[in-house]
Design brief:
Layout: H1 2-23, H2 36-45, H3 57-68, E1 72-74, E2 81-87, E3 97-103, E4 106-114, E5 131-137, E6 140-146, E7 157-159
Length: 168
């Protein structure tokens, strides 16, 4: 009887240890949605540097495939407009991807995330001199944040295959 008691106690102790280390889900780090205008200003104020250059079409497409579930491509842009690279400043979710661009020497950011994660409150902007344009694209939502009064980058973002080639 005593042996049975200690055997059950040992099994319960091992179960508790196993559950403590392997049975619980890890808590996700805290994430707070942030205004796109605020993220734009923070990026500009900190030097407007991308997390990484991403000029290879297949790498660009695969980044969006992995983070948003849809590959994108950036079509050739006109003179005076260039993509600097990608950053991950947050926004709607941890996976919001920002495309940092320069248009006629002014900073422009396009924030991309899944349409299901869209939160229009984050895109409201009452600041003079800053404009936000919204576009839906096959399950994605794209927001261009810009000092320009019209869209300057959104029209160059297209759906792609995983190699970064345009879809027919």
């Amino acid at each position: 009887r005593r042996r049975l008691f200690w055997a059950v106690a040992a099994v319960l102790a091992w179960m508790a240890v196993f559950w403590h280390f392997f049975g619980r889900k890890a808590d996700a780090p805290y994430f707070e949605q942030r205004s796109l205008a605020l993220l734009y200003h923070e990026s500009v104020d900190s030097g407007f540097e991308p997390y990484y250059d991403c000029h290879e079409p297949e790498r660009f497409a695969s980044t969006f495939q992995q983070r948003q579930g849809r590959p994108l491509r950036l079509a050739e842009m006109p003179d005076g407009t260039r993509m600097l690279g990608l950053s991950y400043p947050g926004g709607f979710t941890r996976n919001t991807t920002a495309i940092l661009c320069e248009v006629d020497q002014q900073p422009v950011i396009v924030f991309v995330d899944r349409l299901t994660d869209d939160n229009r409150r984050l895109s409201s902007c009452k600041e003079a001199g800053l404009h936000i344009f919204r576009q839906e694209l096959n399950g994605l939502v794209l927001y261009e944040v810009s000092p320009w009064p019209n869209r300057r980058v959104l029209d160059f973002l297209q759906l792609a295959d995983v190699q970064g080639r345009p879809l027919p």
